Amino acid sequence: MILSITLLAASLVIILLSCYIFVNAVECLGKACNLHQGIVGSILAAIGTALPETLIPIIAIFFAGGAQAHEVGIGAIAGAPFMLGTLGFFVTGFAVIVYSALGKRNKTMNVDCNVISKDLTFFLIIYGTAIATSFFYEITWLKTVIAVFLLLSYTIYLKLVVSSEADMLENVETLYIKKFVKFPDSIPFIVIQLAVSLVIIITGADLFIKYVQQLSSVIGVSPLILSLIITPIATELPEKLNSIIWVGRKKETLAVGNITGAMVFQSCFPVVFGMIFTPWNLHGITIVSAGLALSGAAINLIWIKIFKSLNPYILMTGGLLYGIFIISLFYI
Predict the structure, then answer these.
(1) 241 or 294, which is more confident?
(2) Domains in the chain, ordered, with CATH?
(3) What are the residues facing 168 on neighbouring strands?
(4) DSSP per-residue letters across 255-286
(5) Predicted confidence (pLDDT) at residue 172 exceeds the cutoff of 70
(6) Rg (CA), the chain
(7) Does the structure show a pLDDT above 80 at 220?
(8) Rounded (5°) CA angle 125-321-287
(9) Phi, psi (5° rounding) for residue 29?
Protein backbone atom coordinates (compact mmCIF):
# COMPACT_ATOMS: atom_id res chain seq x y z
CA MET A 1 0.00 0.00 0.00
CA ILE A 2 2.86 2.39 0.82
CA LEU A 3 4.40 1.65 -2.58
CA SER A 4 1.09 2.38 -4.33
CA ILE A 5 0.75 5.71 -2.52
CA THR A 6 4.36 6.63 -3.37
CA LEU A 7 3.89 5.79 -7.05
CA LEU A 8 0.59 7.68 -7.10
CA ALA A 9 2.29 10.76 -5.66
CA ALA A 10 5.16 10.41 -8.15
CA SER A 11 2.75 10.28 -11.11
CA LEU A 12 1.00 13.39 -9.79
CA VAL A 13 4.34 15.22 -9.63
CA ILE A 14 5.04 14.16 -13.22
CA ILE A 15 1.71 15.62 -14.37
CA LEU A 16 2.26 18.84 -12.42
CA LEU A 17 5.77 19.42 -13.80
CA SER A 18 4.65 18.62 -17.35
CA CYS A 19 1.76 21.08 -16.97
CA TYR A 20 4.26 23.81 -16.10
CA ILE A 21 6.19 22.95 -19.26
CA PHE A 22 2.96 22.86 -21.30
CA VAL A 23 1.75 26.22 -19.97
CA ASN A 24 5.11 27.80 -20.79
CA ALA A 25 5.08 26.38 -24.33
CA VAL A 26 1.49 27.47 -24.99
CA GLU A 27 2.20 31.01 -23.79
CA CYS A 28 5.37 31.22 -25.90
CA LEU A 29 3.51 29.92 -28.96
CA GLY A 30 0.75 32.46 -28.43
CA LYS A 31 3.26 35.29 -28.12
CA ALA A 32 5.30 34.13 -31.13
CA CYS A 33 2.17 33.93 -33.30
CA ASN A 34 0.77 37.18 -31.85
CA LEU A 35 -2.38 35.44 -30.61
CA HIS A 36 -4.70 36.92 -28.01
CA GLN A 37 -5.61 35.20 -24.73
CA GLY A 38 -8.92 33.90 -26.04
CA ILE A 39 -7.20 31.83 -28.72
CA VAL A 40 -4.43 30.65 -26.41
CA GLY A 41 -6.70 29.59 -23.53
CA SER A 42 -9.92 28.49 -25.22
CA ILE A 43 -8.39 26.82 -28.28
CA LEU A 44 -4.69 25.94 -27.99
CA ALA A 45 -4.56 24.97 -24.31
CA ALA A 46 -8.09 23.57 -24.26
CA ILE A 47 -7.71 21.26 -27.26
CA GLY A 48 -4.18 20.25 -26.28
CA THR A 49 -5.20 19.01 -22.84
CA ALA A 50 -8.56 17.62 -24.00
CA LEU A 51 -7.19 15.38 -26.75
CA PRO A 52 -5.94 12.54 -24.49
CA GLU A 53 -9.26 11.88 -22.74
CA THR A 54 -11.09 12.37 -26.05
CA LEU A 55 -9.41 9.20 -27.31
CA ILE A 56 -10.88 7.10 -24.47
CA PRO A 57 -14.50 6.95 -25.76
CA ILE A 58 -13.37 6.69 -29.38
CA ILE A 59 -11.18 3.68 -28.60
CA ALA A 60 -13.92 2.10 -26.49
CA ILE A 61 -16.56 2.55 -29.20
CA PHE A 62 -14.47 1.56 -32.23
CA PHE A 63 -12.14 -1.14 -30.96
CA ALA A 64 -13.77 -2.76 -27.92
CA GLY A 65 -17.23 -3.26 -29.42
CA GLY A 66 -20.39 -4.50 -27.76
CA ALA A 67 -23.00 -2.90 -25.52
CA GLN A 68 -20.66 -2.69 -22.53
CA ALA A 69 -18.04 -0.83 -24.57
CA HIS A 70 -20.73 1.58 -25.74
CA GLU A 71 -21.67 2.23 -22.11
CA VAL A 72 -18.03 2.91 -21.24
CA GLY A 73 -17.71 5.22 -24.22
CA ILE A 74 -20.87 7.17 -23.42
CA GLY A 75 -19.82 7.42 -19.78
CA ALA A 76 -16.48 8.89 -20.81
CA ILE A 77 -18.15 11.30 -23.23
CA ALA A 78 -20.53 12.62 -20.57
CA GLY A 79 -17.92 12.52 -17.83
CA ALA A 80 -15.51 15.01 -19.40
CA PRO A 81 -17.76 18.11 -19.61
CA PHE A 82 -19.30 17.17 -16.26
CA MET A 83 -15.95 17.12 -14.46
CA LEU A 84 -14.89 20.38 -16.10
CA GLY A 85 -18.20 22.14 -15.40
CA THR A 86 -18.24 21.12 -11.74
CA LEU A 87 -14.85 20.25 -10.23
CA GLY A 88 -12.95 22.23 -12.87
CA PHE A 89 -14.77 25.42 -11.92
CA PHE A 90 -14.54 24.60 -8.21
CA VAL A 91 -10.77 24.06 -8.29
CA THR A 92 -10.23 27.30 -10.22
CA GLY A 93 -12.33 29.34 -7.80
CA PHE A 94 -10.72 27.64 -4.80
CA ALA A 95 -7.26 28.39 -6.20
CA VAL A 96 -8.12 32.10 -6.34
CA ILE A 97 -9.21 32.03 -2.68
CA VAL A 98 -6.10 30.11 -1.56
CA TYR A 99 -3.66 32.33 -3.47
CA SER A 100 -5.47 35.36 -2.02
CA ALA A 101 -5.17 33.98 1.53
CA LEU A 102 -1.45 33.46 0.94
CA GLY A 103 -1.08 37.07 -0.17
CA LYS A 104 -0.11 36.11 -3.72
CA ARG A 105 -3.06 37.95 -5.31
CA ASN A 106 -6.48 39.42 -4.51
CA LYS A 107 -9.86 37.78 -4.95
CA THR A 108 -10.88 39.96 -7.89
CA MET A 109 -10.67 37.98 -11.12
CA ASN A 110 -9.34 40.05 -14.01
CA VAL A 111 -10.95 37.91 -16.67
CA ASP A 112 -12.07 38.80 -20.20
CA CYS A 113 -15.79 38.13 -19.76
CA ASN A 114 -16.43 38.23 -23.52
CA VAL A 115 -14.14 35.24 -24.02
CA ILE A 116 -15.65 33.16 -21.22
CA SER A 117 -19.22 34.20 -22.06
CA LYS A 118 -18.74 33.05 -25.65
CA ASP A 119 -17.38 29.69 -24.49
CA LEU A 120 -20.21 29.06 -22.04
CA THR A 121 -22.89 30.12 -24.53
CA PHE A 122 -21.63 27.73 -27.19
CA PHE A 123 -21.27 24.94 -24.63
CA LEU A 124 -24.88 25.34 -23.50
CA ILE A 125 -26.12 25.34 -27.09
CA ILE A 126 -23.98 22.45 -28.34
CA TYR A 127 -24.16 20.17 -25.31
CA GLY A 128 -27.78 21.02 -24.56
CA THR A 129 -28.76 20.10 -28.12
CA ALA A 130 -26.79 16.85 -27.93
CA ILE A 131 -28.42 15.81 -24.67
CA ALA A 132 -31.91 16.70 -25.94
CA THR A 133 -31.27 14.54 -29.01
CA SER A 134 -30.81 11.49 -26.76
CA PHE A 135 -34.56 11.55 -26.06
CA PHE A 136 -35.09 10.87 -29.78
CA TYR A 137 -32.30 8.30 -30.10
CA GLU A 138 -34.36 6.00 -32.34
CA ILE A 139 -34.53 8.62 -35.11
CA THR A 140 -31.26 7.96 -36.95
CA TRP A 141 -31.54 10.74 -39.51
CA LEU A 142 -32.16 13.30 -36.75
CA LYS A 143 -29.00 12.25 -34.93
CA THR A 144 -27.04 12.61 -38.16
CA VAL A 145 -28.41 16.10 -38.79
CA ILE A 146 -27.65 17.15 -35.22
CA ALA A 147 -24.12 15.73 -35.48
CA VAL A 148 -23.48 17.89 -38.54
CA PHE A 149 -24.98 20.87 -36.69
CA LEU A 150 -22.59 20.33 -33.78
CA LEU A 151 -19.55 20.25 -36.07
CA LEU A 152 -20.70 23.39 -37.87
CA SER A 153 -21.31 25.08 -34.52
CA TYR A 154 -17.76 24.37 -33.40
CA THR A 155 -16.44 25.73 -36.69
CA ILE A 156 -18.41 28.94 -36.12
CA TYR A 157 -17.12 29.04 -32.54
CA LEU A 158 -13.50 28.81 -33.74
CA LYS A 159 -14.09 31.59 -36.27
CA LEU A 160 -15.64 33.87 -33.64
CA VAL A 161 -12.85 33.25 -31.12
CA VAL A 162 -10.12 33.89 -33.69
CA SER A 163 -11.77 37.03 -35.07
CA SER A 164 -12.73 38.51 -31.70
CA GLU A 165 -10.75 41.12 -29.81
CA ALA A 166 -9.13 40.16 -26.51
CA ASP A 167 -6.15 41.09 -24.37
CA MET A 168 -2.75 40.01 -25.63
CA LEU A 169 -0.37 37.88 -23.59
CA GLU A 170 1.87 39.69 -21.13
CA ASN A 171 4.78 38.67 -18.88
CA VAL A 172 5.57 35.52 -20.85
CA GLU A 173 8.56 33.60 -19.52
CA THR A 174 11.41 32.47 -21.76
CA LEU A 175 10.88 29.06 -23.32
CA TYR A 176 12.13 26.59 -20.70
CA ILE A 177 14.30 24.52 -23.02
CA LYS A 178 16.22 27.68 -23.97
CA LYS A 179 17.61 27.65 -20.44
CA PHE A 180 19.44 24.43 -21.31
CA VAL A 181 20.02 24.72 -25.06
CA LYS A 182 20.87 27.98 -26.78
CA PHE A 183 19.09 28.58 -30.07
CA PRO A 184 17.39 31.49 -31.85
CA ASP A 185 13.71 32.15 -31.19
CA SER A 186 11.82 29.75 -33.43
CA ILE A 187 8.30 28.34 -33.50
CA PRO A 188 9.51 24.77 -34.28
CA PHE A 189 11.36 24.64 -30.94
CA ILE A 190 8.24 25.87 -29.15
CA VAL A 191 6.21 23.14 -30.85
CA ILE A 192 8.79 20.56 -29.77
CA GLN A 193 8.46 21.59 -26.12
CA LEU A 194 4.67 21.62 -26.49
CA ALA A 195 4.61 18.12 -27.98
CA VAL A 196 7.02 16.73 -25.39
CA SER A 197 4.97 18.20 -22.54
CA LEU A 198 1.77 16.66 -23.94
CA VAL A 199 3.42 13.24 -24.20
CA ILE A 200 4.58 13.51 -20.58
CA ILE A 201 1.11 14.67 -19.47
CA ILE A 202 -0.52 11.68 -21.19
CA THR A 203 2.05 9.30 -19.71
CA GLY A 204 1.65 10.78 -16.24
CA ALA A 205 -2.15 10.62 -16.46
CA ASP A 206 -2.03 6.97 -17.54
CA LEU A 207 0.28 6.16 -14.62
CA PHE A 208 -1.95 8.11 -12.24
CA ILE A 209 -5.03 6.14 -13.31
CA LYS A 210 -3.11 2.85 -13.07
CA TYR A 211 -1.91 3.54 -9.54
CA VAL A 212 -5.32 4.83 -8.45
CA GLN A 213 -6.78 1.52 -9.61
CA GLN A 214 -4.12 -0.41 -7.71
CA LEU A 215 -4.68 1.61 -4.55
CA SER A 216 -8.45 1.27 -4.89
CA SER A 217 -8.21 -2.51 -5.07
CA VAL A 218 -5.97 -2.54 -1.98
CA ILE A 219 -8.36 -0.47 0.14
CA GLY A 220 -11.47 -2.14 -1.30
CA VAL A 221 -13.06 0.63 -3.39
CA SER A 222 -15.72 -0.82 -5.71
CA PRO A 223 -15.23 -0.70 -9.51
CA LEU A 224 -18.39 1.43 -9.80
CA ILE A 225 -17.03 4.15 -7.54
CA LEU A 226 -13.71 3.95 -9.35
CA SER A 227 -15.21 4.37 -12.83
CA LEU A 228 -17.75 7.05 -11.95
CA ILE A 229 -15.79 9.18 -9.50
CA ILE A 230 -12.05 8.57 -9.26
CA THR A 231 -10.92 7.89 -12.83
CA PRO A 232 -12.73 10.90 -14.40
CA ILE A 233 -11.06 13.18 -11.86
CA ALA A 234 -7.69 11.82 -12.98
CA THR A 235 -8.35 12.22 -16.71
CA GLU A 236 -9.29 15.89 -16.29
CA LEU A 237 -6.35 16.61 -13.98
CA PRO A 238 -4.21 18.46 -16.59
CA GLU A 239 -6.89 21.11 -17.22
CA LYS A 240 -7.29 21.70 -13.48
CA LEU A 241 -3.55 21.96 -12.85
CA ASN A 242 -3.07 24.30 -15.82
CA SER A 243 -5.78 26.55 -14.41
CA ILE A 244 -4.20 26.55 -10.95
CA ILE A 245 -0.86 27.57 -12.47
CA TRP A 246 -2.45 30.40 -14.46
CA VAL A 247 -4.45 31.61 -11.46
CA GLY A 248 -1.19 31.88 -9.54
CA ARG A 249 0.23 33.99 -12.36
CA LYS A 250 -2.86 36.24 -12.38
CA LYS A 251 -3.82 35.13 -15.89
CA GLU A 252 -7.47 34.37 -15.22
CA THR A 253 -8.62 34.47 -18.84
CA LEU A 254 -6.22 31.65 -19.64
CA ALA A 255 -7.11 29.78 -16.44
CA VAL A 256 -10.87 29.80 -16.98
CA GLY A 257 -10.67 29.71 -20.79
CA ASN A 258 -8.65 26.51 -20.59
CA ILE A 259 -11.61 24.87 -18.85
CA THR A 260 -14.49 26.48 -20.77
CA GLY A 261 -12.75 25.97 -24.11
CA ALA A 262 -12.22 22.31 -23.27
CA MET A 263 -15.91 22.06 -22.36
CA VAL A 264 -16.89 23.31 -25.82
CA PHE A 265 -14.47 20.89 -27.50
CA GLN A 266 -15.56 17.94 -25.35
CA SER A 267 -19.23 18.68 -25.98
CA CYS A 268 -18.69 18.50 -29.73
CA PHE A 269 -16.27 15.96 -31.20
CA PRO A 270 -16.60 13.06 -28.70
CA VAL A 271 -20.36 13.63 -28.63
CA VAL A 272 -20.58 13.41 -32.42
CA PHE A 273 -18.84 10.03 -32.31
CA GLY A 274 -21.26 8.90 -29.63
CA MET A 275 -24.33 10.03 -31.55
CA ILE A 276 -23.27 8.33 -34.78
CA PHE A 277 -21.66 5.12 -33.55
CA THR A 278 -23.72 4.29 -30.43
CA PRO A 279 -27.48 4.14 -29.73
CA TRP A 280 -27.06 7.46 -27.81
CA ASN A 281 -29.78 6.40 -25.40
CA LEU A 282 -28.76 8.40 -22.33
CA HIS A 283 -30.44 7.65 -19.01
CA GLY A 284 -29.95 7.49 -15.27
CA ILE A 285 -26.78 8.95 -13.81
CA THR A 286 -25.54 9.98 -17.27
CA ILE A 287 -28.46 12.37 -17.69
CA VAL A 288 -27.90 13.66 -14.16
CA SER A 289 -24.24 14.40 -14.89
CA ALA A 290 -25.17 16.20 -18.12
CA GLY A 291 -27.78 18.30 -16.33
CA LEU A 292 -25.28 19.28 -13.64
CA ALA A 293 -22.65 20.22 -16.24
CA LEU A 294 -25.18 22.44 -18.01
CA SER A 295 -26.21 23.93 -14.66
CA GLY A 296 -22.61 24.79 -13.78
CA ALA A 297 -22.16 26.58 -17.10
CA ALA A 298 -25.52 28.38 -16.82
CA ILE A 299 -24.84 29.64 -13.28
CA ASN A 300 -21.55 31.25 -14.28
CA LEU A 301 -22.91 32.62 -17.56
CA ILE A 302 -25.85 34.27 -15.78
CA TRP A 303 -23.46 35.81 -13.25
CA ILE A 304 -21.28 37.19 -16.05
CA LYS A 305 -24.27 38.63 -17.91
CA ILE A 306 -25.63 40.36 -14.78
CA PHE A 307 -22.45 41.54 -13.05
CA LYS A 308 -20.01 41.72 -15.99
CA SER A 309 -17.45 39.81 -13.94
CA LEU A 310 -16.52 36.34 -12.74
CA ASN A 311 -16.57 35.47 -9.05
CA PRO A 312 -14.43 32.74 -7.42
CA TYR A 313 -17.22 31.86 -5.01
CA ILE A 314 -19.67 31.39 -7.87
CA LEU A 315 -17.12 29.15 -9.59
CA MET A 316 -16.93 27.13 -6.39
CA THR A 317 -20.63 26.25 -6.65
CA GLY A 318 -19.33 23.59 -9.01
CA GLY A 319 -18.29 21.71 -5.88
CA LEU A 320 -21.90 21.73 -4.70
CA LEU A 321 -23.05 20.36 -8.04
CA TYR A 322 -20.46 17.61 -7.81
CA GLY A 323 -21.72 16.79 -4.32
CA ILE A 324 -25.24 16.42 -5.73
CA PHE A 325 -23.83 13.96 -8.26
CA ILE A 326 -22.18 11.87 -5.53
CA ILE A 327 -25.44 11.73 -3.57
CA SER A 328 -27.32 10.78 -6.75
CA LEU A 329 -25.13 7.70 -7.16
CA PHE A 330 -26.80 6.12 -4.16
CA TYR A 331 -30.36 6.73 -5.38
CA ILE A 332 -30.23 6.14 -9.14
Answers:
(1) 294
(2) 2-329 (1.20.1420.30)
(3) 36
(4) HHHHHHHHHHHHTTHHHHHHHHHS-----THH
(5) yes
(6) 19
(7) no
(8) 55
(9) -65, -40
The 10s digit of each residue's pLDDT in 123-158 is 999 999 999 999 999 999 999 999 999 999 999 999
**pLDDT tier for residue 208 given thresholds of 50, 70 and 90:** confident
The H-assigned helical ranges of the chain are: 2-32, 37-39, 46-59, 66-83, 89-101, 113-133, 140-163, 187-219, 223-225, 231-235, 237-248, 252-266, 269-277, 285-307, 312-315, 317-329
Rounded distance between C-alpha atoms, residue 327 and residue 288, angstroms? 11
Are the beta carbons of 260 and 120 closer than 8 angstroms?
A: yes
Give just the sign of the alpha carbon dihedral 52, 54, 56, 60: negative
CB atoms within 10 A of CB 286: 21
* Most distant CA atoms of the chain, gap in Å: 60
The one-letter code for the residue type at 275 is: M
Torsion of CA 19, 22, 28, 30, to 10 degrees: -100
Question: For the whole model, what pTM was predicted?
Answer: 0.89
